[in-house]
Amino acid sequence: MATFKAIRIDKAEKGTTAALTEFDEAELMDGDVTVRVEWSTVNYKDGLAVTGKAPVVRRFPMIAGIDFAGTVEQSSHPAWKAGDKVVCNGWGMGETHLGAYAEKARVKGDWLVALPAGLTARDAMAIGTAGYTAMLSVLALEKHGVTPKDGPVVVTGAAGGVGSVAIAVLSKLGHHVIASTGRMSEAGYLKDLGAAEVIDRNELSGPAKPLAKERWAGGVDSVGSTTLANLLSTTKYRGAIAACGLAAGMDLPSSVAPFILRGVCLLGIDSVMCPIELRRTAWTRLASDLDRTKLSEITHEIGLAEVIETGPKILAGQVRGRIVVKIP
Fold first, then answer.
1. Which phi-psi region, left, alpha or beta, contains residue 300 (left: φ > 0; alpha: ψ -120 to 50)?
2. What is the pTM of this model?
3. Does position 163 have pLDDT exceeding 70, yes or no?
């Protein structure tokens, strides 16, 4: 096809504009693998990109979308051939490299992961970057040595994409999961995912003490700011918090007390430039450790034409679970 449907971000006099349009295949960027995109998803970063609320996009024009699953059409990379089913997320897609909200994508073969056995392309995007980030967080906690016998683990932003998958995975692994949410009306949903307890995020929103009562052995935080500071001050001796988001802000109003008096560790989770071997491990574990029934229950499907209107909703915390995008 000479052109294909895509969500294009352009620079405007004030900010940016986003529109579903026809994109010329000749404008695709360099890469040794061309993929027919079948499914994508809406992540928090995608919401920032299509609304222009933050400077996510750093070249124009840009095709939005930070992750996709699809089928290889052409390849000059030795690892991939036409017909292979692949997943791609991060690596600057939708930021510096033309992204996933399109019928075609051209990327570097070194960025791709084979679709794990047992997962469909739709399943992979129901997991998406949010779920993959949740699994990277779980792997980091495991590497640190956090086990179910050490005590509860906490998950913030619990009703969002990262939080939903983190709860489902951690509970299946035997952890007592405490879910923190600003939407207590979602308590039933969170308990269905596997949360043993649900707490109001207000418990973690006040100014953090240098040290407070020990409550959990570990946690997954996608909120940042004061919430993360409170998590650190209430983490048990030699526990750890995996930090993977900044929905509440980039600041961290904490102190060194949790680190030097309790030996608490803050584990930074980067999903964008994560090494390929760790990516493969994460996707393999998602295929085995995430209950597919729960995945189905947290997933809502939309079409490419609905992505732009969904952006403000995910930023406002109005999206529960995961959204998959069916590409025409």
1. beta
2. 0.92
3. yes
